[in-house]
C-alpha cells in the first residue's frame, strides 16, 4: 500500500516511451516531501552506522522501533487533527493520565489487565471529548484549550499518583506481551503502530469521513456550506486523540512496568507535532498524510538513538527537535509563498 498525503486529480501524461516517464511517476507518487525524508533518514543511518558498528544491528533497530512507537501513535492522531485545522498540545499529558489509570485500575481490580486497559481507554475518551467540547462550544482556540489541558492533565496524573510511579504490571502476562512480546520477530508495540497507521490511512484516504476532514481543514466555510457538520467532526477527532493517547499510555505502562505520571510522557507533544510538520502537514490545515508522518517519526527516532549511542548530552536532543520543527515550518512557509511578518507583500 502506498501512502499519499492528499488525493490529487488525474494528470494526462504525454505520449511517449513509458520507460522514460517511470522515474518521474515514481517521484510524483512518493512526493517530494517523502523523498527528502527518506534521503535524510538514509543519511542519519549512514552517519551513525559509520561512527558505531553496533548502530545498524538488528537489536538496535528494534530498540529504535520500540522507542518510536509511542511517539508514532501520537504523531498519527496529531496528523489527523492538524489536517482538520486544529492542534493538540496536551497529548503527552493524556498519555501520563492513561498510564497511571491503567496501572492503578490493574492493581485495584486484583491484577486484571483488561480492566486496567479499559479504564485507561475510558479516561482517554473523556479527556478527548472534554478538549473537543471546550474548543467547539466554549469557542476557545485549539492551541489555548490544549495548552490548558497540558497543564491540567499533567496535574491530574500527579494528583492521582501522588507524583510517584504506580503499580507493578510485569507480573502479568498480558502487559508483558504488550511491552516485550514479539510476533514473527517484530515487537508487539510496533505491530500496534502499524495497525493504527493503516487504519487511519484508510480512513483519511478512502472514506467520506477522511475527505470531509481534509475539506474542513482546507476551507471550513466551504465545508460548512457543503453541509458538513464541522462541530461533530472536531469533537470526534479530539475523542480519537484521547483513545490513541490512552493506547500509548497503556504501552508506556507495559514498557516501563508501572504507571508513569510524567516520566516517559513529558515532551511527547513536541515530538508528535514535529513529526507531523516534518511529514508534510500544513499547520494551517487541509494537507498531510500518514506516510510522511511515519517517515518523520523514523527519522526522529534514528537521530535520537544515534545521539544517545554516541553519548551526546540528552539536552541536545531537545535542541535538535526544536530546530527541526522550526525548519519544517520555514520550509512550509516558503513553499506557500507566505510573506515575512512586518514586511510588505
Fold topology:
Layout: H1 18-30, H2 32-51, H3 58-83, H4 91-108, H5 113-137, H6 142-161, H7 173-180, E1 182-183, E2 186-187, H8 188-206, H9 208-218, H10 220-225, H11 230-256, H12 268-278, H13 290-309, H14 315-336
Antiparallel strand pairs: 1-2
Helix pairs in contact: 2-13, 3-8, 3-11, 3-12, 3-13, 4-5, 4-6, 4-11, 5-6, 5-11, 7-11, 8-9, 12-13, 12-14
Could you describe the 3D structure shown?
The structure is a single chain. This protein has 345 residues and is mostly helical. 71% of the residues lie in helices and 1% in strands. The protein is built from 14 helices and two strands, in the order αααααααββααααααα. It has helices at residues 18-30, 32-51, 58-83, 91-108, 113-137, 142-161, 173-180, 188-206, 208-218, 220-225, 230-256, 268-278, 290-309, 315-336; strands spanning 182-183, 186-187. Strands 1-2 form a two-stranded antiparallel ribbon. A hairpin with a 2-residue loop joins strand 1 (182-183) and strand 2. Helix 4 packs parallel to helix 6 (142-161) and helix 12 (268-278) packs across helix 13. It is globular, with a radius of gyration of 21 Å. The relative contact order is 0.18. The model is unreliable at 1-23 (pLDDT under 50).
Class by helix and strand content?
Answer: mainly alpha
C-alpha geometry: globular
Largest sheet: 2 strands, antiparallel
Strand order of the largest sheet: 1-2
| Terminal CA distance | 42 Å
Strand content: under 5%
- Helical residue percent band: over 70%
Order of helices and strands: HHHHHHHEEHHHHHHH
